[in-house]
Amino acid sequence: MKGYGEKEARWDHREQIRAGYGFTAFAGEQWFxxxxxxxxxAWTTGERPIVLFDLATHRLVEAKILLPGVTTLDRLYWxxxxxxxxxx
Length: 88
Known about the structure:
By secondary structure, this protein is an all-alpha fold. The chain has helices at 9-21, 28-44, 49-62, 70-85.
């Protein structure tokens, strides 16, 4: 594991996972679909943030979409929350 974060190996591994297991990247279309789902879920349920995070992660894995970093999902959640709280 020495030097793992210093080289591009982590990106190579991501590509190997995509190719070997049929996963797709978390990009534009997937981001938008997850944002819409998260907005609807947050609007219609009273679920806590950690529950929404777990459900979003499960949804991505089931759809065979590579998981983005934790901070990406966290940011997506907080953008949705700020949007829901914004005055009309």
